[in-house]
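Suppose a classmate hands you a notebook page containing two proteins, each written out with its sequence and a corresponding row of structure tokens. How would you begin to make sense of it? This section walks through that situation. The first entry is reproduced here exactly as it would appear on such a page.
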Amino acid sequence: MNRYSRLARRAVAPSIVLGLLVLAAPAPAQKVNLGRRSRPTPPPPSQGNNANVPEEYKDTPPVLRFKMRDIDGNEVDLKDYKGNVILMVNVASKCGYTPQYKELESLYEKYKDQGFVILGFPSNDFGEQEPGDAAEIKKFCTEKYNVSFKLFDKVPVKTMESACDLYKFLIDRRTNAQYGGDIQWNFTKFLIDRKGEIRGRFKSDVSPDHPRVVKRIESLLKVKGPKPKPSESDADKAAADKGDSDKADGDDAEKPKSEGGDMSGDGK
């Protein structure tokens, strides 16, 4: 072997050994993600989970499983409105849309005998346009717009972080997938059918007497649902009528058997 061959072998040998060591080395461990672990999506509020609902609300639609304080400070259980077509509106006294009070009242007067109710929720969330207390709000609404539909005490409505429980339910996309989302301004309107399903949402600039709103309300009023609970005035009147009827039956002669009583209306 000549001198050059010996030198070549000495130069190659270390390279071969180094290559064998690299091949024998274990594979590097995969990089571990040490970032913050993602959180699971929390379940919807208990109002939408029938397993956690109190017995008194088992047959009540989730959107009506709330108790609110009205403009006079009385506690109102929204389940009392079950079976009605309901328009829920966040209202304000010093807004450019405040004149919609007149249209809301007209709408209420026109359809209230068919099972239509409006629930107004004053809120100071937008431009501080509802600064007054309950007494001032009531005085303004009754004196300027002759409002007779139900008004409630002032509540926050804007976002999931700040809204009262009812409005959290209305704007939460987990409980109201189609019409959820933060309230953008005063006089946003949610339309609810007789079964308690949210069937529409109308922006502030859509007036209550807009043909699209009226047509939707009329279509929902035609659908039969659970029988609405009578108001206190209706219940008192019915009790008085029953008392008068019983008294008349006792004083007068027996009615003919062919009479079946007053059958006006649908009797349902």
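The notebook's second entry, a different protein, reads as follows.
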Amino acid sequence: MAKNDRWSITPWQLTSIIFGATMGVGILTLPKEVDRIAGSAGWIATFFGGLIALTAAWVMSWLVRKHPQKTYVEFFPELLGQLPGKVVVFIMIVYQISVVSLFARAFGEVVMTTILLNTPLEVIVLSMVLLAGYLARQNLRVVARINEIFLLVVLFFILGISLLTLQFVSTLRLLPLLGQGPLAIARGALEAAAAFLGFEMVLFAGSFVNQPDWIGKASTIAILGITILYSLGVLVATGVFGPQEVEKFLWPTFEVVRNTEVPGLVLERLDVLFVSVWLVAVFTTIGTYYYFGVQGLARLLGFKEHKVLVLPLLPLIYRLGMGPGDLGAVFRALRWSGIGGVVLFALLPFLVAGVTLIKKTGDGSQAQKRRGGP
């Protein structure tokens, strides 16, 4: 895989891509999901969920560095066998494209229930799908720069909002410290790991980094940053409302912002500003997933350009997104897609890494025998 200008990114751009792909719908629903399991210790469970994602990302970065000049579409079949490897790659691609539809639908539901109350859901979802399609038609450098530009805006705004809302946190609502107990924290960490999906961009984009030795560092910076933001967000939501109340809200993080009043600010409606910035975060998430999905599919099918696949897939993505009948069905679909993503991207890399080590050990033994060694 030759690295020309269109297919070469910096380590910082990899950090931006991981951050952009991860910070989306999960930030609004995560407090509800982890508090349901871990209670007042939801923020601790979230932190450990980030560590799960970080561990998987380290394995992915090791795999990418062990197979230079190759993408996962190329080295997975080499390691797992042509047919099994291509099947696994195809499942990954299907996952990426399918979550685009779910995220677009979740985006539509949030916007329709918060700011555009009279706008048809279909119009909101279709608008985001078309925007994602536009971004997906660009080359990798453009996608990386978009994530790079929006990273600082989203990062500093969300961090600023979290710090502003800390003043409303009651430490009593964060007790007992271990919530429902260590076992519940462990189960909550597994649930929280789904909100960190986007860390798999290490596998998809890492092959294009112009400084391979920095892949692990770049992914670590991104995931640790997200872990801090997510843990802080859950802590604030739990500390403001309490775990029992958090479970009752559709979008707990949005409710925290909506109930926050900061005297002296020019903008009194922080919730409107928050949703505006959140829209940018969701756009980068959906657009990045769609780009790497169609790019992987194009490589798997042997196409020279991924652009030819973008438009034909848009109607399918829109139809899949409008498939769930109500908001409850959307939540269930998101939860199951999160579980599937964790299984696929947190466990599979360890299997592939094991195969890589076995093959390299076998190759080393054969080379030693050819040299006449014992």
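A careful reader of the second entry would note: DSSP finds 15 helices and no strands in the chain.
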